[in-house]
Amino acid sequence: MSDLTADAVATEHSGAGNPAAPGGGRTVAAAVPPSLVARLAAGVTATGEPDLVETAAPLTGERLASLPQSTPADVEVAFQLARRAQAAWAALPVRRRAAVLLRFHDLLLRRQDEVLDLIQAETGKARLHAFEEVLAVAMAARHYGRAAHGYLKDKRRGGALPVLTHAVEARRPKGVIGHISPWNYPLELSIGDALPAFVAGNAVVNKPDTQTALTALWARELLVEAGLPADLWQVVIGDGPVIGPAVVEHADYVSFTGSTRTGRDVAQRAAARLVGASLELGGKNAMLVLADADLDAAAAGAVRACFSSAGQLCISIERLLVHRSVADEFLERFAARTRALRLGGGLAYGADMGSLVSVRQLETTTRHVDEAVKAGATVVAGGRARPDLGPFFFEPTILDGVTPDMAVCAEETFGPVVSLYRFDTDEEAVAAANSTPYGLNSSVWTRDLRRGRTVAARLRTGTVNVNEAYAAAYGSVGSPMGGMGDSGLGRRHGAEGILRFTEAQTIATQRLLPIAPSFGLDDKQFAAVMTGGLRALKALRFK
Ligand code: NAD
Question: Is 161 among the domain residues?
Fold first, then answer.
């Protein structure tokens, strides 16, 4: 490995604006030594003499890990092992399974520095943004650790005939969940969705993105330390278009997070097998700044909304809709905060924004900005790649004067680029926010909370944050999170986030009388008695 530290690269920068952040002085190589890589790589389900795949650290471009690749045959093995382990796991009481999540919660908080290093090494994001993943996963572990019993317990339901029919709705695990996750939030998106699947009694075969497989493997190791039977969580690694379909091919249910394009393919394959799928996909999220908003708070919120994880966040904001009367003042404050952001890649707290993950993300970001500028948009802040800081750094960028013919207007950039648009009425702002096929997240800023919630109700997105960027809704783990329209199907978090991993089963027990002519009633008399009974049940407001 190179002995170049991420910090050394960052601190070489001496230009104006976007100052480099101080770093922690540790190299990626020191934080992720070959012994750690080898230990984690042993958790991949790959038999025989597997082909190896190399990953690199986005912060510096240096070699990071060499990992065994699974074949489609290995995926089959993974499902067999998982299926075998699942039966015994499902037989445990829910509280025993939930206790594993609660122990995991404590271990994660205690050992967070280990995984913060891994996340930073694999994604290049700033440590604060890596910590958001620890926060999100701890919240999900606590929530499902405490609430799973209530979600999963048998529920008494009204029977066909009062008193005579006893009906119970029970929840059974689906079996083995095929779980495909992307690189952008590697801890949250590999384990966050797996936790409710496990506590509901399932096994999981996870295909993380190869770039961020170490983080997923670390999470698996920690969950096993917390008490999860090791075979219950299989990790397979390989080319998405090869290994992804193999996972869908064997799964009893599919949980997918990634792009809308891949999500459509996954949905079709799952549908052909008649297995369910939840799909957490892309977005082109809008933030509305109403005329009465606290502009300082909104400007600070916009920085979080647009530049967390360098904009590689499905719920981040790429469209800022600002009331014309305050647009110039807001833009001035937002731009000042944006220009002051410290870019850097040290494996320590201090930087406000890190690197993009790959050349692919850098190319899309650069293309969206360059094309927009060529077509007449104005760069208010940022606008350039920063190879002086690391191979994939790009400045946090604000564009003004963007028009609908520009790609940046409607396509997901998934980078640190936001465009500002002006509006005159709430009506216009709502229409503009809803003018995209996506529907993932949005944000409304106003001093009038009631008005904020009224506007929120008119936005066609799965989550809306009032006076916050995204963390208020995402962190409310008892409430569902997910996308409308092209942003997906199904929800994570809350009841929906766990019940999707179960099959509903109704067990109805009939007592004393059959639901059929009896006691000497002929068919016609039975029909008359039942007709009277139905009228009485409605009159008694029976549900
Ligand atoms: P992607 O669709 O390219 O890849 C996601 C995962 O799918 C990876 O593990 C990949 O290897 C795998 N994959 C690739 N081809 C596959 C196939 N044919 N069948 C099955 N699996 C396949 O997405 P990406 O570019 O890595 O991730 C970024 C995208 O994810 C963005 O669009 C972002 O908005 C979205 N995302 C959404 C959420 C959410 O909760 N809605 C969260 C994070 C990211």
Answer: yes
Residues spanned by the domain of 73: 43-49+69-281+494-502
266 CB less than 6 Å from ligand 1?
A: yes
Q: Say if 419 falls within a structural domain.
A: yes
In a domain, 54, yes or no: no
Best CA proximity match to 104, nearest among 231, 229, 197, 225: 225
182 shares a domain with 304: no
Predicted pLDDT of residue 11: 33
**314 is known as an active-site residue:** yes
Six-digit token string for 47: 């038999």
CB-based contacts of 175: which residues, under 8 Å, 6+ apart? 83, 86, 202, 203, 252, 253
pTM of the model: 0.95
Mean residue pLDDT of the chain comes to: 95
Same domain (yes/no): 300, 373: yes
Q: Which of 284, 314, 358, 491 gets mutated to test ligand 1 (max ligand atoms within 8 A of its CB)? A: 314
Kindly give the number of the ligand 1 atom that is closest to the alpha carbon of 262: 2
Residue 42 tokens read as 């042993």
- Phi first, then psi: give them for residue 64, nearest 5 degrees: -115, -55
Task: Quote the strand ranges of 300-349, DSSP E.
Answer: 317-323
- Residue 306 annotated among the catalytic residues of the structure: no
Instruction: Given the residues 62, 133, 188, 280, select the one marked as catalytic.
Output: 280
Convert the pLDDT of each residue in 43-80 to its tens digit: 999 999 999 999 999 999 999 999 999 999 999 999 99
Buried b (16+ CB within 10 A) or exposed e, 95-120: eebbbbbbbbbeebeeebebbbbbbb
φ, ψ of residue 538 in degrees (nearest 5)? -65, -45
Give yes or no for residue 236 CB within 6 A of ligand 1. Answer: no
Same domain for 88 and 206? yes
Instruction: Express each pLDDT in 468-524 by its tens digit.
Output: 999 999 999 999 999 999 999 999 999 999 999 999 999 999 999 999 999 899 999
Tell me whether residue 511 is in a domain: no
- Nearest to 304, CA basis, from 320, 328, 293: 320
Ligand 1 pocket mutation pick from 69, 75, 209, 365 by most atoms within 8 angstroms of CB: 209
Nearest to 130 by CA among 141, 118, 119: 119
pLDDT at 26: 82
